[in-house]
Design a protein that fits this description.
Layout: H1 2-22, H2 25-43, H3 55-65, H4 70-83, H5 87-92, H6 95-102, H7 109-124, H8 133-138, H9 144-155, H10 164-174, H11 183-196, H12 202-215, H13 235-238, E1 255-266, E2 269-274, E3 285-286, E4 289-291, H14 296-303, E5 310-322, E6 326-337, H15 339-342, H16 345-349, E7 354-357, H17 358-364, H18 372-379
Parallel strand pairs: 1-6
Antiparallel strand pairs: 1-2, 1-4, 2-3, 2-7, 5-6
Helix pairs in contact: 2-11, 2-12, 3-4, 3-9, 9-12, 10-12
The structure holds a DNA duplex.
DNA sequence: AAGACGGGGAT
DNA sequence: ATCCCAGTCTT
């Protein structure tokens, strides 16, 4: 008798599991949205940009959050908003000040595009951000993710915001083995979510997916499936595939470049150089540097000086800086020029950069971290 | 489709 | 040392 009951129970469970397995993706996401939103209401972090989610606030935060961790963004966001509290202020900010506010955050084109978009908002949209996904998408620096995030969070428009978190969470939920680095997969995901997402709570739904990706369905270590509200619906959890999903093709290794960095002082001044406004670290300042590991003689030639112009010259230790796509292996020289030499206009003009007051160099100009190992010799 | 574009924290 | 982050733009 008892055995029969158990058999029936197992049979029922099997049917239920099979039904669960057969659930089409759209329905699976729709079912997941209920416990997901419930979970989000309890676990949403308190974040500065959530206090008053105006379009401007959401926009600035989303740009800063591109490829950047929440913890890193917080302080930058507060300082940025304190100084540039509305779109007009952003449109009016001096480029140099803008870069200083962004210094250390990386991907500096984000800041330039932010200002460009603000100028366009002032010019074309009456000083406000446009209120449709399509119009947002036209602004510089706003791609499908950011347009979706601003549209849904600030305006309540039911469009998805697919970032790395969402790609990972949904891929696991559906046990999809497609490569999430492929643009085509992201597009499919956006179409799927457009159909499956709740039309009423779009902003919360999008944020909930990202939040659960950041806190539970995490990228590197083991996901915390035990505390996941979606574990009953998650096919990767059921088939123990969270180790292999999401699938990502390995990326190419970065190239290595040798460079020589020069810490040049002359009296109370130091030598800095403005980088071109395209390419790596565009528009930021740097210590003069050039490709290759230079000997002393090559350094004189590079600086356009001769040996008798120099008061002190010493070799500095090697240093390394890693960007995402290139690695700099640097060597350096500290050079103190004779003060009287620095007073000659001709000699100053031939330098690869400009001599500026030491105190100014630190407070006014954005000097990226790549030169950290060598700026110390100049300023301290 | 592939590469450029930063910096830092976790493993 | 490697991964990867609330991605976008250019080639």
């Amino acid at each position: 008798m008892e055995e029969q009951i158990l058999d029936q129970l197992y049979a029922d469970m099997e049917v239920l599991e099979k039904e669960n397995d057969m659930l089409p993706p759209v329905k699976r996401i729709k079912e997941a949205s209920v416990p997901l939103l419930q979970w989000y209401r309890r676990h949403a972090r308190t974040l500065p940009w959530r206090e008053s989610p105006t379009p401007y606030h959401v926009w600035v935060s989303e740009i800063m959050l591109q490829q950047t961790r929440v913890e890193a963004v917080k302080a930058y966001y507060e300082r940025f908003l304190a100084e540039l509290s509305d779109i007009q202020a952003l449109a009016d900010v001096k480029d140099e000040r803008l870069m200083k506010l962004w210094e250390g955050l990386g991907y500096y084109n984000r800041a330039r595009n932010l200002k460009r978009a603000a100028e366009e908002a002032v010019l074309t949209y009456g000083g406000k951000l446009p209120d449709s996904y399509e119009e947002l998408l036209k602004l510089p620096g706003i791609g499908s993710y950011t347009a979706g995030a601003v549209a849904s969070i600030a305006y309540g428009i039911p469009v998805p915001a697919v970032d790395g978190n969402v790609l990972r969470v949904i891929s696991r939920l559906l046990a999809s083995t497609e490569d999430i680095l492929k643009p085509s997969l992201k597009k499919k995901m956006e179409e799927l979510l457009t159909e499956a997402m709740p039309k009423e709570n779009a902003g919360d739904f999008n944020q909930a997916l990202m939040e659960i990706g950041a806190l539970v369905c995490i990228p590197n270590g083991q996901p915390h499936c035990g505390e996941c509200p979606l574990r009953g619906l998650c096919l990767s959890n059921r088939y123990q595939k969270t180790d292999s999903i999401p699938v990502k093709t390995p990326k190419k290794s970065r190239r290595v470049q040798e460079r020589t960095v020069l810490a040049v002082a002359c009296g109370s001044e130091v030598l800095i150089h403005k980088r071109p406004d395209k390419g790596l670290l565009a528009g930021l300042y740097e210590l003069p540097n050039t490709e290759g590991h230079l000997e002393k003689g090559q350094v004189y030639a590079y600086l356009g000086i001769s040996e008798e112009d120099i008061l002190v010259m010493e070799r500095l230790p090697e240093a390394k800086h890693i960007f995402s796509h290139v690695e700099w292996r640097m060597t350096g020289y500290y050079i103190k020029l004779k003060e009287e030499w620095g007073k000659l206009r001709d000699s100053r003009d031939n330098l690869p950069g400009e001599l500026v007051d030491k105190a100014d160099a630190e407070s006014r100009y954005a000097l990226p971290g790549a030169f950290k190992a060598y700026v110390g010799y100049l300023f301290h």
